[in-house]
Design brief:
Length: 290
Protein backbone atom coordinates (compact mmCIF):
# COMPACT_ATOMS: atom_id res chain seq x y z
CA UNK A 1 0.00 0.00 0.00
CA UNK A 2 1.07 3.61 -0.64
CA UNK A 3 -0.01 6.86 0.98
CA UNK A 4 -2.10 7.77 -2.07
CA UNK A 5 -4.15 4.62 -1.51
CA UNK A 6 -5.41 6.13 1.75
CA UNK A 7 -8.68 7.80 0.84
CA UNK A 8 -11.08 6.79 3.58
CA UNK A 9 -10.39 7.19 7.26
CA UNK A 10 -12.41 5.84 10.14
CA UNK A 11 -12.09 7.36 13.60
CA UNK A 12 -13.34 5.20 16.46
CA UNK A 13 -14.44 7.24 19.47
CA UNK A 14 -16.00 10.69 19.20
CA UNK A 15 -14.85 11.97 22.59
CA UNK A 16 -12.16 14.44 23.65
CA UNK A 17 -9.71 13.45 20.90
CA UNK A 18 -11.83 11.57 18.35
CA UNK A 19 -14.13 14.43 17.35
CA UNK A 20 -11.16 16.68 16.61
CA UNK A 21 -9.17 14.01 14.75
CA UNK A 22 -12.24 13.32 12.58
CA UNK A 23 -12.69 17.00 11.83
CA UNK A 24 -9.01 17.31 10.98
CA UNK A 25 -9.19 14.39 8.52
CA UNK A 26 -12.31 15.79 6.86
CA UNK A 27 -10.76 19.25 6.56
CA UNK A 28 -7.77 17.72 4.82
CA UNK A 29 -9.81 16.03 2.13
CA UNK A 30 -10.31 12.55 3.55
CA UNK A 31 -13.68 10.84 3.50
CA UNK A 32 -14.06 10.34 7.20
CA UNK A 33 -16.41 8.27 9.28
CA UNK A 34 -16.57 8.90 12.99
CA UNK A 35 -18.09 6.17 15.13
CA UNK A 36 -18.93 5.81 18.80
CA UNK A 37 -21.13 3.41 20.73
CA UNK A 38 -22.66 6.32 22.62
CA UNK A 39 -25.20 8.21 20.50
CA UNK A 40 -25.01 11.17 22.84
CA UNK A 41 -21.26 11.60 22.30
CA UNK A 42 -21.68 11.13 18.58
CA UNK A 43 -24.35 13.84 18.50
CA UNK A 44 -22.09 16.17 20.47
CA UNK A 45 -19.28 15.56 17.97
CA UNK A 46 -21.59 16.35 15.07
CA UNK A 47 -22.76 19.53 16.77
CA UNK A 48 -19.11 20.49 17.26
CA UNK A 49 -18.43 20.10 13.52
CA UNK A 50 -21.55 22.10 12.65
CA UNK A 51 -20.37 24.96 14.84
CA UNK A 52 -16.61 24.71 14.29
CA UNK A 53 -16.61 24.87 10.48
CA UNK A 54 -18.77 28.01 10.19
CA UNK A 55 -16.65 29.49 13.00
CA UNK A 56 -13.49 28.97 10.95
CA UNK A 57 -15.16 30.62 7.95
CA UNK A 58 -16.23 33.57 10.11
CA UNK A 59 -12.65 33.93 11.39
CA UNK A 60 -11.38 33.94 7.81
CA UNK A 61 -9.31 30.77 8.38
CA UNK A 62 -11.01 28.71 5.66
CA UNK A 63 -13.30 29.47 2.72
CA UNK A 64 -16.98 28.60 2.64
CA UNK A 65 -16.22 26.04 -0.06
CA UNK A 66 -13.60 24.38 2.19
CA UNK A 67 -16.08 24.23 5.04
CA UNK A 68 -18.75 22.75 2.78
CA UNK A 69 -16.33 20.13 1.43
CA UNK A 70 -15.18 19.21 4.94
CA UNK A 71 -18.78 18.85 6.12
CA UNK A 72 -19.55 16.60 3.16
CA UNK A 73 -16.47 14.52 3.92
CA UNK A 74 -17.54 13.55 7.42
CA UNK A 75 -20.27 11.17 8.52
CA UNK A 76 -21.23 9.90 11.95
CA UNK A 77 -22.51 6.43 12.73
CA UNK A 78 -22.88 4.21 15.75
CA UNK A 79 -22.33 1.13 13.57
CA UNK A 80 -18.69 0.05 13.80
CA UNK A 81 -19.13 -2.22 10.80
CA UNK A 82 -20.48 0.57 8.57
CA UNK A 83 -17.68 2.84 9.75
CA UNK A 84 -14.75 0.52 9.04
CA UNK A 85 -15.92 -1.64 6.15
CA UNK A 86 -14.34 0.61 3.45
CA UNK A 87 -11.65 2.27 5.55
CA UNK A 88 -8.05 2.39 4.38
CA UNK A 89 -6.81 3.82 7.66
CA UNK A 90 -8.46 3.45 11.07
CA UNK A 91 -7.64 5.67 14.05
CA UNK A 92 -8.95 4.37 17.35
CA UNK A 93 -9.46 7.02 20.02
CA UNK A 94 -11.61 5.14 22.52
CA UNK A 95 -11.29 4.80 26.28
CA UNK A 96 -7.84 3.88 27.70
CA UNK A 97 -8.78 0.35 28.81
CA UNK A 98 -6.72 -2.48 27.36
CA UNK A 99 -9.47 -5.13 27.16
CA UNK A 100 -11.83 -2.70 25.43
CA UNK A 101 -9.16 -1.71 22.92
CA UNK A 102 -8.30 -5.35 22.21
CA UNK A 103 -11.96 -6.16 21.57
CA UNK A 104 -12.31 -3.15 19.26
CA UNK A 105 -9.20 -4.15 17.31
CA UNK A 106 -10.36 -7.77 16.94
CA UNK A 107 -13.72 -6.57 15.62
CA UNK A 108 -12.13 -4.00 13.33
CA UNK A 109 -9.67 -6.56 12.01
CA UNK A 110 -12.61 -8.78 11.07
CA UNK A 111 -14.61 -5.96 9.48
CA UNK A 112 -12.09 -3.68 7.76
CA UNK A 113 -10.42 -4.37 4.40
CA UNK A 114 -7.26 -6.50 4.79
CA UNK A 115 -5.03 -3.66 3.55
CA UNK A 116 -6.21 -1.19 6.22
CA UNK A 117 -3.76 0.20 8.76
CA UNK A 118 -5.17 0.13 12.28
CA UNK A 119 -3.77 2.88 14.50
CA UNK A 120 -4.45 3.67 18.11
CA UNK A 121 -4.28 7.19 19.46
CA UNK A 122 -3.51 5.75 22.89
CA UNK A 123 -0.94 7.55 24.98
CA UNK A 124 -0.84 4.87 27.67
CA UNK A 125 -1.14 1.56 25.81
CA UNK A 126 1.50 0.52 23.31
CA UNK A 127 0.31 -1.13 20.12
CA UNK A 128 2.22 -4.37 20.78
CA UNK A 129 -0.33 -5.05 23.56
CA UNK A 130 -3.12 -4.89 20.99
CA UNK A 131 -1.58 -6.06 17.70
CA UNK A 132 -1.86 -9.79 18.43
CA UNK A 133 -5.64 -9.39 18.67
CA UNK A 134 -5.71 -8.67 14.91
CA UNK A 135 -5.01 -10.58 11.68
CA UNK A 136 -2.19 -8.23 10.65
CA UNK A 137 -0.06 -7.16 13.63
CA UNK A 138 2.42 -5.46 11.28
CA UNK A 139 -0.32 -2.96 10.41
CA UNK A 140 -1.09 -1.94 14.00
CA UNK A 141 0.64 1.21 15.25
CA UNK A 142 0.39 4.05 17.78
CA UNK A 143 -0.49 7.36 16.14
CA UNK A 144 -0.54 9.75 19.06
CA UNK A 145 -2.17 13.16 18.60
CA UNK A 146 -2.05 15.96 21.16
CA UNK A 147 -4.92 17.85 22.70
CA UNK A 148 -6.52 19.90 21.14
CA UNK A 149 -5.83 17.78 18.07
CA UNK A 150 -7.03 20.43 15.63
CA UNK A 151 -4.42 22.82 16.97
CA UNK A 152 -1.36 20.94 18.20
CA UNK A 153 0.93 20.13 15.29
CA UNK A 154 2.77 17.20 16.81
CA UNK A 155 1.91 13.55 16.20
CA UNK A 156 4.03 10.74 17.62
CA UNK A 157 4.31 7.74 15.30
CA UNK A 158 5.44 4.91 17.54
CA UNK A 159 7.00 1.94 15.82
CA UNK A 160 6.76 -1.13 18.04
CA UNK A 161 8.84 -4.22 17.19
CA UNK A 162 5.93 -5.79 15.25
CA UNK A 163 5.24 -2.75 13.04
CA UNK A 164 6.33 -2.88 9.40
CA UNK A 165 8.35 -0.15 7.71
CA UNK A 166 5.48 0.33 5.27
CA UNK A 167 2.97 0.97 8.06
CA UNK A 168 5.35 3.44 9.70
CA UNK A 169 6.10 5.28 6.47
CA UNK A 170 2.44 5.60 5.47
CA UNK A 171 1.57 6.80 8.97
CA UNK A 172 4.30 9.45 8.87
CA UNK A 173 3.12 10.56 5.41
CA UNK A 174 -0.51 10.66 6.50
CA UNK A 175 0.38 13.01 9.36
CA UNK A 176 2.06 15.35 6.87
CA UNK A 177 -1.03 15.24 4.64
CA UNK A 178 -3.04 16.26 7.71
CA UNK A 179 -0.77 19.28 8.16
CA UNK A 180 0.96 17.81 11.21
CA UNK A 181 4.58 17.39 12.21
CA UNK A 182 5.16 13.68 12.83
CA UNK A 183 8.01 12.40 14.96
CA UNK A 184 9.19 8.83 14.61
CA UNK A 185 9.43 7.16 18.02
CA UNK A 186 11.59 4.12 17.37
CA UNK A 187 10.87 2.19 20.55
CA UNK A 188 7.81 1.56 22.69
CA UNK A 189 8.58 3.33 25.94
CA UNK A 190 6.04 4.55 28.50
CA UNK A 191 4.92 8.07 27.71
CA UNK A 192 6.54 7.83 24.27
CA UNK A 193 8.45 11.08 23.74
CA UNK A 194 6.67 14.27 24.75
CA UNK A 195 4.60 12.88 27.64
CA UNK A 196 7.83 11.74 29.31
CA UNK A 197 8.85 15.39 29.32
CA UNK A 198 5.40 16.79 30.19
CA UNK A 199 4.81 14.30 32.99
CA UNK A 200 8.19 15.13 34.53
CA UNK A 201 6.93 18.73 34.66
CA UNK A 202 3.54 17.64 36.08
CA UNK A 203 5.28 15.63 38.82
CA UNK A 204 7.53 18.53 39.77
CA UNK A 205 4.55 20.89 39.82
CA UNK A 206 2.61 18.56 42.12
CA UNK A 207 5.60 18.11 44.40
CA UNK A 208 5.96 21.91 44.71
CA UNK A 209 2.22 22.25 45.45
CA UNK A 210 2.02 19.36 47.92
CA UNK A 211 5.15 20.62 49.71
CA UNK A 212 3.46 23.98 50.28
CA UNK A 213 6.18 25.83 48.37
CA UNK A 214 3.79 27.77 46.12
CA UNK A 215 0.16 27.96 45.11
CA UNK A 216 -1.28 26.25 42.08
CA UNK A 217 -1.83 29.60 40.35
CA UNK A 218 1.73 30.72 41.02
CA UNK A 219 3.19 27.48 39.72
CA UNK A 220 1.15 27.90 36.52
CA UNK A 221 2.14 31.56 36.28
CA UNK A 222 5.81 30.65 36.69
CA UNK A 223 5.68 28.28 33.72
CA UNK A 224 3.72 30.72 31.54
CA UNK A 225 5.57 33.93 32.37
CA UNK A 226 9.02 32.52 33.14
CA UNK A 227 9.34 29.70 30.63
CA UNK A 228 6.94 30.81 27.89
CA UNK A 229 4.69 27.74 28.13
CA UNK A 230 1.26 28.36 26.54
CA UNK A 231 -0.41 27.18 29.75
CA UNK A 232 0.80 26.06 33.18
CA UNK A 233 0.99 22.38 34.20
CA UNK A 234 -2.21 22.39 36.29
CA UNK A 235 -4.25 24.00 33.49
CA UNK A 236 -2.70 21.53 31.09
CA UNK A 237 -3.57 18.52 33.28
CA UNK A 238 -7.15 19.84 33.35
CA UNK A 239 -7.09 20.08 29.57
CA UNK A 240 -5.74 16.58 28.90
CA UNK A 241 -7.83 15.05 31.70
CA UNK A 242 -6.98 14.12 35.27
CA UNK A 243 -8.29 10.61 34.51
CA UNK A 244 -5.73 10.24 31.73
CA UNK A 245 -2.91 11.58 33.93
CA UNK A 246 -3.94 9.10 36.63
CA UNK A 247 -4.07 6.16 34.20
CA UNK A 248 -0.70 7.00 32.71
CA UNK A 249 0.99 7.30 36.11
CA UNK A 250 -0.54 3.99 37.15
CA UNK A 251 0.69 2.31 33.95
CA UNK A 252 4.17 3.65 34.73
CA UNK A 253 3.98 2.21 38.24
CA UNK A 254 2.74 -1.18 36.99
CA UNK A 255 5.74 -1.40 34.66
CA UNK A 256 8.41 -0.10 37.02
CA UNK A 257 7.10 -1.21 40.43
CA UNK A 258 8.66 2.03 41.66
CA UNK A 259 6.37 3.77 44.20
CA UNK A 260 7.73 7.12 43.03
CA UNK A 261 5.81 6.52 39.80
CA UNK A 262 2.43 6.25 41.60
CA UNK A 263 0.02 9.12 40.91
CA UNK A 264 0.43 11.99 43.37
CA UNK A 265 -2.06 11.88 46.31
CA UNK A 266 -3.61 15.21 45.34
CA UNK A 267 -4.15 13.94 41.79
CA UNK A 268 -5.73 10.77 43.19
CA UNK A 269 -8.10 12.88 45.31
CA UNK A 270 -9.37 14.71 42.22
CA UNK A 271 -9.59 11.43 40.30
CA UNK A 272 -11.62 9.71 43.02
CA UNK A 273 -14.08 12.59 43.14
CA UNK A 274 -14.56 12.43 39.36
CA UNK A 275 -12.91 15.83 39.00
CA UNK A 276 -11.35 15.00 35.67
CA UNK A 277 -10.61 18.58 34.58
CA UNK A 278 -12.20 20.85 32.00
CA UNK A 279 -14.50 18.19 30.56
CA UNK A 280 -15.97 17.51 34.03
CA UNK A 281 -16.29 21.19 34.91
CA UNK A 282 -13.78 20.78 37.74
CA UNK A 283 -10.25 19.56 38.17
CA UNK A 284 -7.38 21.52 39.64
CA UNK A 285 -9.46 24.56 38.70
CA UNK A 286 -13.19 25.10 38.89
CA UNK A 287 -14.79 25.73 35.48
CA UNK A 288 -18.29 26.32 36.78
CA UNK A 289 -20.96 24.57 34.80
CA UNK A 290 -19.84 21.52 32.77
N1 LIG B 1 -10.43 23.05 19.75
C1 LIG B 1 -10.12 23.57 18.55
N2 LIG B 1 -9.40 24.70 18.41
C2 LIG B 1 -9.01 25.32 19.54
C3 LIG B 1 -9.29 24.82 20.83
C4 LIG B 1 -10.05 23.63 20.90
N3 LIG B 1 -10.36 23.05 22.06
N4 LIG B 1 -8.76 25.64 21.75
C5 LIG B 1 -8.15 26.62 21.07
N5 LIG B 1 -8.30 26.42 19.74
C6 LIG B 1 -7.77 27.24 18.66
C7 LIG B 1 -8.49 28.56 18.53
O1 LIG B 1 -9.60 28.43 17.66
C8 LIG B 1 -7.41 29.42 17.94
O2 LIG B 1 -7.27 29.11 16.57
P1 LIG B 1 -6.87 30.27 15.49
O3 LIG B 1 -5.72 31.03 16.06
O4 LIG B 1 -6.52 29.51 14.25
O5 LIG B 1 -8.08 31.10 15.37
C9 LIG B 1 -6.13 28.91 18.61
O6 LIG B 1 -6.43 27.57 19.02
C10 LIG B 1 -5.75 29.72 19.82
O7 LIG B 1 -6.86 29.72 20.70
P2 LIG B 1 -7.16 30.82 21.81
O8 LIG B 1 -6.63 32.14 21.33
O9 LIG B 1 -8.60 30.74 22.16
O10 LIG B 1 -6.43 30.31 23.09
P3 LIG B 1 -4.91 30.22 23.43
O11 LIG B 1 -4.08 31.11 22.58
O12 LIG B 1 -4.90 30.34 24.87
O13 LIG B 1 -4.55 28.72 23.01
C11 LIG B 1 -4.27 26.41 23.41
C12 LIG B 1 -5.20 27.62 23.57
C13 LIG B 1 -4.07 26.11 21.93
C14 LIG B 1 -4.94 25.22 24.07
C15 LIG B 1 -2.90 26.78 24.07
O14 LIG B 1 -3.12 27.19 25.39
C16 LIG B 1 -1.92 25.64 24.08
O15 LIG B 1 -1.22 25.40 23.12
N6 LIG B 1 -1.85 24.95 25.24
C17 LIG B 1 -0.96 23.80 25.40
C18 LIG B 1 -1.65 22.57 24.90
C19 LIG B 1 -0.76 21.37 25.03
O16 LIG B 1 0.33 21.39 25.54
N7 LIG B 1 -1.30 20.24 24.54
C20 LIG B 1 -0.63 18.95 24.68
C21 LIG B 1 -1.22 18.24 25.85
S1 LIG B 1 -0.51 16.67 26.12
C22 LIG B 1 -1.45 15.61 25.22
O17 LIG B 1 -2.43 15.94 24.63
C23 LIG B 1 -0.99 14.22 25.13
C24 LIG B 1 -1.46 13.26 26.10
O18 LIG B 1 -1.41 12.08 25.82
C25 LIG B 1 -1.84 13.64 27.46
Amino acid sequence: MKIDDVKKICVIGAGNMGHQISTLCALNGYQTTCTDIMEEILKKAETFVDQYLPGRVEKGKISEADAKRARENITFTSSLEDAVKDADYVIEAAIEVLDIKRKIFTDVSNMAPAHAILATNSSAIVSSRIADATHHPEKVINLHFFNPALVMKLVEVVQGPHVSEETTEISMELCKKLGKVPVHVKKEVNGFLLNRILFAIFNEAQWILDSGVASLEDIDNACVYGAGHPMGPFRLMDLVGIDLCYTMALEDFKKSGNRADLPYPSLVRHYEKGEYGQKAGKGWYDYGKK
